[in-house]
């Protein structure tokens, strides 16, 4: 007896129920249903809940239904996808339950992989990997949070907390008895309806399976018709309220509570607030979002905030201070403004945070403001820095242990504000790369590429060795740099080579072009070296040899060291 005759005869329930809410999905639902019906499970039912379609969705479903009795269309007055899913679950009769959206695709073998796992393990639910796709590309949104590198079964929720980071309903399968036991339902909201019931299911599951298979393809339609990409005040407040409900669910589970805090602060929560503030909302609308944000921040752990990326941490710190106009300005200027806008945004935000939280401002300055200046201060006038930098003079800037950021810190504290754009421009040439060594009558001529982009770079090449330090003039013409090292100026021994620039505090390494440098002539006292153990640092070995027949030696020296 095949699965269709078992269904029609009545006594046996289908093995799997697939619930598909559909509203105005005519262009995509045919492909979605085809992918579901092509799964390696004959004994399934597909319940399409049509909640108010005004296009050709019903006709597409009815045509497919006429050729496959596993499909059933349910006309519903549900006002949201969550409500439509509840209607579908109430009509579903399968032993196991999955959800799919009407514009997505279920890869071949996805349901079989999840079904085999959950039936073998006896777990309450199983979760699989997924991909997103558009008309031009496909990508993985899961690699940062939870790698599906191997199959696992019977996990307790706190044994795999990173799985909580993904909370869609469509990349998992549930045992129907587990779904019904606590009366699980989707909330009656217009968007973000997945996160609370999926968090609840995850927290309450006795055991969970993971399959490494890609079990779902989520379509990015590239428009704003989906509620999930809207950023008005009501959608943002609704999201924040749902996260607050999730916070209550994980409150008594320390590992999951910490994971949920990370989701809010460094992922979903930041993304929603950033997207909302990017629309330049009015102060009145921001007030409602501010109240909902404050309520959420009051119930999630904030001890992980120090580990959040600086640009995200700045937004949260402004929110914690209630400085929503400043938060809006920071988002608008750092995400869509000019370089001057971005630098001004960092200065203003750090100065504002410093009034209430000196330690927080110090960290934001070193980890966020300083890199922004390293990457964006080039070409801006010294007058602009003289006008704006006094706002952060009181903020302590500690050494980072990294060359360019530390040089920028010194420049920000220098009375000569012209050094700031100079340091920023040096990112194009630091570390200085050497790709040519030539012999001269005096010693060695070294050089390499120098994309100084119009900057008047002047400085010195410094050799440090047994006899102390020696300095040689560095010249650059916009595309190349060069320096002549004279053997009489340095003592015998091995010398480390670095470069300094006029007005800039600190010295920077000179490195070879990731290749060893052969001798330029065995008779020459000065020999180029490459220390591959220290990042291909360039060195010079000054040998204590008498020069004999130097002109003859020079004639045998190749022009370019490789």
Topology, pairings included?
Elements (H helix, E strand, L loop, with lengths): L2 H7 L6 E7 L6 H9 L6 E7 L6 H11 L3 E5 L5 H11 L4 E4 L10 H12 L3 E9 L4 E2 L12 E4 L16 E4 H6 L13 H10 L3 E12 L13 H18 L3 H13 L1 H10 L5 H15 L12 H11 L3 H13 L2 H16 L3 H19 L5 H7 L14 H11 L5 H7 L6 E3 L1 E4 L3 E7 L9 E7 L2 E9 L3 E7 L6 E9 L6 E5 L13 E6 L5 E6 L7 H6 L7
Parallel strand pairs: 1-2, 1-4, 2-3, 5-9, 10-17
Antiparallel strand pairs: 4-8, 5-6, 5-8, 7-9, 11-12, 12-15, 13-14, 13-16, 14-15, 16-17, 16-19, 18-19
What would your notes on this structure say?
The chain has 562 residues and is of the alpha+beta class. The chain has 19 helices and 19 strands. Strands 10, 11, 12, 13, 14, 15, 16, 17, 18 and 19 form a ten-stranded mixed β-sheet that branches. Strands 1, 2, 3, 4, 5, 6, 7, 8 and 9 form a nine-stranded mixed β-sheet that branches. α3 links the parallel β2 and β3. α8 (233-250) runs antiparallel to α10 (268-277), α13 (324-336) packs antiparallel against α14 (339-354) and α15 crosses α18. The chain starts with a helix and ends in a 7-residue tail after the last helix.
Strand content: 15-25%
> What is the 3D form?
elongated
Give the averaged pLDDT, no decimals. Answer: 89
- Our measurement of the CA-to-CA distance between the termini, rounded to an integer number of angstroms, reads 76 Å
**Number of helices in the DSSP assignment:** 19
Main beta sheet strand tally, sense and closure: 10 strands, mixed
Which runs of at least 5 residues are low in confidence (pLDDT < 50)? 1-9, 224-229, 547-562
Helix % is 25-40%
Task: State the total count of DSSP E strands.
Answer: 19
Radius of gyration: 32 Å
Helices and strands: which structural class? alpha+beta
């Amino acid at each position: 007896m095949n699965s269709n005759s078992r269904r029609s005869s009545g006594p046996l329930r289908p093995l799997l129920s697939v619930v598909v809410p559909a509203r105005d999905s005519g262009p995509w639902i045919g492909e979605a249903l085809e992918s579901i019906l092509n799964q390696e499970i004959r004994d399934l039912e597909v319940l399409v809940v049509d909640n108010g379609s005004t296009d050709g969705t019903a006709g597409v479903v009815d045509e497919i239904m006429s050729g496959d009795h596993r499909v059933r269309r349910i006309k519903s007055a549900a006002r949201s996808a969550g409500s439509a899913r509840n209607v579908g679950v109430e009509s579903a009769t399968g032993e196991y339950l999955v959800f799919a959206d009407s514009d997505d695709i279920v890869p071949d073998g996805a349901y079989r992989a999840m079904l085999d796992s959950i039936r073998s393990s006896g777990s309450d639910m199983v979760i699989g990997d997924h991909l997103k796709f558009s008309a031009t590309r496909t990508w993985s949104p899961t690699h940062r949070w939870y790698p599906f590198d191997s199959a696992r079964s019977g996990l307790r929720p706190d044994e795999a907390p990173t799985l909580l980071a993904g909370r869609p309903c469509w990349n998992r399968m549930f045992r129907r008895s587990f779904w019904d036991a606590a009366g699980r339902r989707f909330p009656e909201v217009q968007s973000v309806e997945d996160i609370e019931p999926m968090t609840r299911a995850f927290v309450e599951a006795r055991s969970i399976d993971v399959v490494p298979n890609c079990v779902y393809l989520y379509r990015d339609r590239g428009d704003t018709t989906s509620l999930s990409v809207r950023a008005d005040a009501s959608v943002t407040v609704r999201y924040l309220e749902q996260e607050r409900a999730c916070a209550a669910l994980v409150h008594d589970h320390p590992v999951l509570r910490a994971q949920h805090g990370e989701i809010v602060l460094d992922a979903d929560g930041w993304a929603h607030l950033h997207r909302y503030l990017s629309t330049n909302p009015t102060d009145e609308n921001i007030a409602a979002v501010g109240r909902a944000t404050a309520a959420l921040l009051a119930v999630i752990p904030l001890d992980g905030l120090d580990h959040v990326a600086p640009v995200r941490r700045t937004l949260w710190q402004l929110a914690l201070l209630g400085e929503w106009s400043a938060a809006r300005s920071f988002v608008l200027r750092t995400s869509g403004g000019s370089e001057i806008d971005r630098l001004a945004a960092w200065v203003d935000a750090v100065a504002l945070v410093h009034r209430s939280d000196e330690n927080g401002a110090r960290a934001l300055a070193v980890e966020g403001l300083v890199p922004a200046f390293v990457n964006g201060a080039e070409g801006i006038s010294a007058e602009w820095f003289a006008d704006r930098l006094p706002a952060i003079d009181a903020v302590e800037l500690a050494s980072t242990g990294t060359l360019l950021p530390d040089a920028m810190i010194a420049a920000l504290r220098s009375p000569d504000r012209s050094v700031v754009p100079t340091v920023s421009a040096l990112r194009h040439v630091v570390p200085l790369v050497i790709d040519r060594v030539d012999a001269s009558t005096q010693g060695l001529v070294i050089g390499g590429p120098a994309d100084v982009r119009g900057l008047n770079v002047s400085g010195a090449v410094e050799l440090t060795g047994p006899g102390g330090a020696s300095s040689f003039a560095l010249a650059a013409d916009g595309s190349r740099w060069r320096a002549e090292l004279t053997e009489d100026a340095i003592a015998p021994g091995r010398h480390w080579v670095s470069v300094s620039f006029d007005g800039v505090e600190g010295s920077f390494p000179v490195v070879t072009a990731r290749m060893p440098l052969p001798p330029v002539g065995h008779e020459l006292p000065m020999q180029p070296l490459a220390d591959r153990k220290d990042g291909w640092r360039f060195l010079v070995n000054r040998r204590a040899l008498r020069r004999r027949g130097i002109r003859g030696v020079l004639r045998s020296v190749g022009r370019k060291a490789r």
